[in-house]
Amino acid sequence: MSELNSKIPEGSIGEKWDKHKFNIRLVNPANKRKYTIIVVGTGLAGAAAAASLAELGYNVKAFTFHDSPRRAHSIAAQGGINAAKNYQNDGDSVYRLFYDTVKGGDYRSREGNVHRLAQVSVNIIDQCVAQGVPFAREYGGMLDNRSFGGALVSRTFYAKGQTGQQLLLGAYSALSRQVATGKVEMFTRSEMLDLVKIDGKARGIITRNLLTGEIESHAGHAVLLCTGGYSNVFFLSTNAMACNATAAWRAHKKGAYFANPCYTQIHPTCIPVSGDHQSKLTLMSESLRNDGRVWVPRNPEDKKKNPSEIADKDRFYYLEEKYPTFGNLVPRDVASRNAKYVCDEGLGVGATGKAVYLDFRDAIKRDGQSRVEDKYGNLFDMYKQITNEDPYKVPMKIYPAPHYTMGGLWVDYNLMTNVDGLYALGEANFSDHGSNRLGASALMQGLADGYFVAPYTVGDFLATQPYEIEDTSHEEFTKAKNAVEDRIKKVLSIGGTQTPDEIHKKLGRIMWDHCGMSRNADGLKLARTEVQKLREEFWKDIKVVGTDNQLNAELEKALRIADFLELGELMIIDALDRNESCGGHFREEYEINGEAKRDDENYSYVAAWEYPHENPMEHMKGDPILHKEELVFENVKLTQRSYK
What is the DSSP string of 591-616? Predict the structure, then answer.
């Protein structure tokens, strides 16, 4: 075990980023065109980074497994993006956003990174408005704001219920401009399957052309992974079905540390599971908790009644009663656990009993249906199309579901992993959210990293690099390419009886039951054994039809599930090693009246795990190696988190 150097700059919290920008090394504008940067993923973080770096003069190669960057999962973010503009004059500030984020993450995030995020948040809004993002506006023309969980101010900018899509279109327009100028070379329908390191530095990637099956090599001076999170390890999640962890996991197997993998977020506001036929779950934006009231019947015998027939005195508004200060706007981990509690107590509604009501009756009475439509109309339409129930007339039914992953590749203040030249941006890194992400902060982090952090910090590394580097003829490219091809042939040759989805569903059930919304030592130990057995089952009995030289969705799934089977075990190991509860990591042995009980003396650190052996194409054997980054809190006092 070794200590990790986060490279946080010296100085007061408010001066760190400005001083750091001045002190980092710069690249002569005429020399930027001599460098090539590889950007993997073209969601908000990737598109913003690729566009910004190309605008600076670098040559950029951008990769997406979609047919267009516009299909990145960033479009699914609905409710808004945080920024400390204080347009409402309600007491917001950069420091308050910083404080709320550290507290919301249950004091398990890095102060320096979080304060920088709060600082640049104000610039993000200006950038996006200049790009034409159609944020909602008040009657007088000013940008509107609403509240999100974990905050007592209104700092969330939004575009109805499709904020992520509109922000991505803004980033995509900037990216498209650079594609047109020739500074960005776009590779669509290409999936990264390995990282290439030469002399310890990230110098390229191996990809598979998803249309032709061709395995391709690409060289560059630096590699930026902007590939999102890993919630699909649970099979059912709010993520798009194609979301996966392969790029980050293959980088991990090449030496990049994976930090806090057990920190996963269960979103409280999702359409409940309806049966075994489902392939994913649908998110209902947290913004709905601004005006919607969450409740269940006080009396179990009322569960089958029409909710309009249940009198107010017989409605249990459990968040409002338990947390009077924040009410329905408690953070996601708190709201999710309390929904689970009331359902476990037999008060859940719906056919399965695994749902609570999200009711807009009072908001419609107060503001009128047209005002509610203005704010949430497309979300209400989506809910009706899926459930065949009209939320203007009856309450929505919601239940928690896997959503976001706070864990990810370990990065320092510059967003560089422990592998020189390899960066991780957005949800692919661990750095800003601690053990629980506040709503509307994912879009903020993705754009902050892409537009305002990486363009500075990547240059700091490139300024030390030679213009001429090894090309794809180097033996490390050949070795990595051969290993990828061998892995594909191995998966195709098994010829078993189980489809990738069948294996994935089994993995998801193990992870949800034992490493989901709550965990305990016995369950985690059992889960590790079960995942190891399932991994052996995969390599003996997986059935993948088709060939490798064509479009083959089953092969894509199988390769990704092989990585999930290893990542799932690491999540379990991390959860078992952390003997405390914090944020989304809720160990049942460590709680106070149903709230998370942290152990700051022993666990106030980032857990960064090293892959346990050197053959990256073999599945995990033995225990990973733990490295710690001690967290230092100089500006926020460590206290028991309370939203009451």
Answer: EETTEE---HHHH-EEEEEEPSSS-T
Give which of 220, 533, 581, 302 is closest to 436, Cα–Cα: 581
Whether 332 is a known active-site residue: answer yes
Judge whether 218 lies within some domain: yes
Number of folded domains that form the chain: 3
- Domain identity same for 387 and 494: no
Q: Using one digit for the tens of pLDDT, what is the confidence trace for 166-221? A: 999 999 999 999 999 999 999 999 999 999 999 999 999 999 999 999 999 999 99
Q: Which of 375, 402, 429 is the last residue of a domain?
A: 402
Q: Which residue has the tokens 């670098």?
A: 58
C-alpha to C-alpha distance for 96 and 333, rounded to whole angstroms: 20
In this structure, how many other beta carbons lie within 10 angstroms of the beta carbon of residue 348? 23
Q: Compute the Cα dihedral for 328, 330, 333, 339 and give only its sign.
A: negative
DSSP state of 54: H
609 vs 408: CA distance, rounded Å: 10
371 Cβ contact list (under 8 Å, min separation 6): none
Task: Tell me the backbone φ, ψ of residue 46, rounded to 5 degrees.
Answer: -70, -45
Active-site choice (332, 337, 535, 598): 332
Q: Which of helix, strand or coil describes residue 75?
A: helix
Are residues 115 and 177 both part of a single domain?
yes
Mark residue 404 as left, alpha or beta (left: phi above 0; alpha: psi -120 to 50; beta: remaining): beta
Q: Write down which residue in 364, 380, 402 finishes a domain.
A: 402
**In terms of domains, do 270 and 173 share one?**
no
**Per-residue CA distances from 440 to 35, 107, 285, 287, 455 (Å):** 34, 18, 10, 9, 23
With vertex at residue 240, the alpha carbon angle to CA 238 and CA 244, rounded to the nearest 5 degrees, is: 105
Looking at the structure, do residues 304 and 252 belong to the same domain, yes or no?
no
- Domain span at residue 296? 266-402
Nearest to 596 by CA among 605, 604, 587: 587
In a domain, 5, yes or no: no
Residues 355 and 418 in one domain: no
Give the strand pairing for 184-187 and 59-63. parallel
CATH number assigned to the domain comprising residue 357: 3.90.700.10
Please give the Cα distance from 255 to 440 (Å, whole number): 32
- The C-alpha atoms of residue 501 and residue 167 are separated, in whole angstroms, by 32
pLDDT, tens digit, 9 for 90 and up, residues 537-586: 999 999 999 999 999 999 999 999 999 999 999 999 999 999 999 999 99
